[in-house]
Fold this protein.
Amino acid sequence: MAKPDWHRLGPVETLKQQSLQAITVEGKPVALSWADGRFGAIAGRCLHAGGPLGLGTLKNGYVACPWHGWTYQRETGEGEPGSTDAVPRYLLKEEGGDLYIDLASATHPRPASHLLHPLARRPERADGPLRLVGISTTVMDRQAPRYSTSEDLLGVALEAASSEGAETRLIRLNDLKFRACEGYYSKSAQACTWPCSITQMDDKDELAAVYEALVHWADVVLIATPIRWGNASSLYFKLIERMNCIQNQITTRNRVLIRNKVAGFIITGGQDNVQSVAGEMMMFFGELGFTFAQFPFVGHSRGWSAEDMENNMAAVKADEELRQGTRALARRCLERARDLVATGAGPARTERGGRKANAGFGKSPGPD
C-alpha cells in the first residue's frame, strides 16, 4: 500500500461554502464537493473528452461534466448505474479545522465503457469507382415541395457523374432532422469533438449521414445553394456550423479528416452575389481540407431587380448552356478527384505555420 501523501486544502468552513469547486493539488486537477455533511474528492478530468468536472454541476450526489454531461458519483468516482466508467477518488480527512487530501490514495480510473461512434473510425478510402455526393441546402415545406433551381442543377450534375461511371448520392438537408450547433466550442475548443458532440449524444441526429459521406465515403462533394439576401441559404449555414467539428480536429489535434477530396458548388438565385457566396464557400471548405477543380462553381442569377421568380425558374429550366456547364463542373471535379485518389491516402496532418492556433495549441497530435 502506498505511503499516504497528505496535502492541506484549506479551512473546512471556507471549503464548505461551495458545493462543487475545481482545485489543483501538486498539478493534479481535483473536483471537490460538499453535500449531505460530507466532502468528496474525485479526479477533475472527465474520461470522455477531459472536461473540468470541478466546473460542472452537482445533482443527486453526481458531478456532471460541464462539456457533455457525463456524470460521476461525487465520493466514489463511479459512473451512473449501468455504466462501468470511474474516475479516481481520493481520501480526505479533517484535522485542526483544515481539510487534507491524500494523493497517494487515488484509485485507478476505469476507461469509458461507451462504444465508439461508427464515425470515429479511421478515414480510409474503400476500393471502387469514384464517389460523388450532392448536398442540397434549399429550405422548403416538406409537405408541399416546390421547384428549386439549385437542386435541379444538382440533379443534372449527379446524372452527369453517373454517366462517367461514378457512384452518386443525393442528400437533401431539408429532409434531415438535425439540431443546430449548440456552441460546445464556446465552452472550450477541446469540448468540440469528433464525431460531433451532438451526434455522439443524440442517436436521432440525422446529420450523421452527411458526416459519413464527407469524411468516409465521397471523393467529390457538390454543394448546391440558393442565394438568400446575398448569402447562401440558412440551411447551408446551419450545416457548416455543425461541420466545425471537422475543422476543429486540425486546430486541436492536427488531425486532417478530409484527405484528397474535391468540393464544387452550384449557386443560383434571383438576386446577384454569386461571386461573394462562392468565395465564402470555397474558404470554408478549403479550411476543412478540400481541394478544388479548375473553375470550381457554377452560378446563375438574373440580377438585383429580378423579383419575378417564376421567370427565374423558367430561365434555369430552359437554359441548356447552363446545364452543359453544370455537367462540365461534375466532370472537372471527378477528373481532379481521380488524380488525387491516384496519389494515395493524403496527409493526415498539416504544417502548422500560418494556421490558426498554431503556437503550441494542439501539442499532442491525434491518431491518423
Observations:
- The chain has two domains: 6-105, 118-343.
- The two ends are 39 Å apart (CA to CA).
- The first strand starts at residue 6 and ends at 11.
